[in-house]
């Protein structure tokens, strides 16, 4: 189950990605066109550069944009977009990575809770 904090952190990324997705689908951004940079998207959306870049990466995973190098993304050609099978493989890989991150975070949380409990037990009130 997603925590509220997690949901709120993803809203700006999703909104930026949705705005770009609409521009691509409407034809405002055409195959081969340069996608606005992370810095440009951050400035126009009032979000961070990291959040804007995550939105671009999300669209790349969906096959809507191609990342040519770290600073340039272009709208993908529909003929070269990822097949549903390739999208499934990518999604499965991302899910596995996300699950591993969650496991690591749970371990960190357990350790921190233990340290806090130990520290509280040593405090004399």
- pLDDT < 50 stretches: 4-9
pLDDT average, as an integer? Answer: 84
> With helices defined by DSSP (H or I, 4 residues minimum), what is the helix count?
4
Taking the alpha carbons of the first and last residues, their distance comes to 37 Å
SSE series: HHHEEH
The overall strand count is: 2
What profile does the largest beta sheet have? 2 strands, antiparallel
User: Please, what is the oligomeric state?
Assistant: single chain
Helix content: 55-70%
Calculate Rg over CA atoms: 20 Å
Shape: elongated
Strand-residue fraction? 5-15%
Strand order of the largest sheet: 1-2
* Estimated structural class: mainly alpha
What would the keywords be for this entry?
single chain, 67% helix, 125 residues, two-stranded antiparallel sheet, 7% strand, mainly alpha
Provide a brief overview of the structure.
With 125 residues, the chain is mainly alpha-helical. 67% of the residues lie in helices and 7% in strands.
Tell me what you see in this structure.
Helices cover 67% and strands 7% of the residues. By secondary structure, it is mainly alpha-helical. Strands 1-2 form a two-stranded antiparallel ribbon.
Explain the layout of strands and helices.
Elements: H1 4-26, H2 38-45, H3 49-62, E1 65-69, E2 72-75, H4 84-122
Antiparallel strand pairs: 1-2
Helix pairs in contact: 1-3, 2-3
